[in-house]
Design brief:
By secondary structure, the chain is of the alpha+beta class. It has 2 domains: 130 residues, 60s Ribosomal Protein L30, Chain: A (2-Layer Sandwich); 72 residues, 2-Layer Sandwich (Alpha-Beta Plaits). It is built from 7 helices and 10 strands. A 6-stranded mixed beta sheet has the order 2-1-3-4-5-6. Strands 8-9-7-10 form a 4-stranded antiparallel beta sheet, sandwiched between helices. A hairpin with a 2-residue loop joins strand 4 and strand 5.
Length: 220
Amino acid sequence: MSSILEIIGPSMIGPSSSHTLGAMRISKFAYNLVGSTPQKAIFYLHGSFQDTYIGHGTGLALIAGLCGIPTDDPRVSKANEIAKHIGFEYEFKSVDLGNVHPNTVKIVTYKDNVHHEIVGSSIGAGRIVIISIDSVECELDGEYPTLLIENKDVPGALSSIIRIISINGTNIAKLYLNRESKYLKLANTVVELDSEVPNSTIESLKMLDVVKTVMYVKPI
């Protein structure tokens, strides 16, 4: 059953949950991916988001999500002021992302010379679908823990990763893989899990010879 917040969205910033709560949850996913507020972000607005980011509060919702503000926090309406206070820079740009939901945004974050890109759609009643993470096509709702792994594109790499994840009884719900560079032999793997994994599992993944980096994304 949906909560009132899921039905009407955060009323302090706009009348539409698709344009506010959904947008904020996409941005909060990006926040969880980075682990904190980035130094800078660019919001590429597709479809109706281009028209609603001011009037319906979509822009404030996106800023608030990357500031780590909870969806039911009254400070959402002052997200731009909070961003300025903490030194978070952002800009909005219009873009055509092709054949995707009209309420879609691509968020590019920059922190300590590292950038990430996520593409997410707000599909109604506060629900979202993350359709791309760092060029890996996926289909995530943000409700479950997710691992983002950069690994060597060599035989046996994926089986080694799966073995470490499964060793403590953690079940893999979805797995997506994209070759980052054929010549550098690197790939990105996105793994959605049924439950949280202990820190020991993440550390064990980092110790694998085939793994370059591991990022743990908490549920939103």
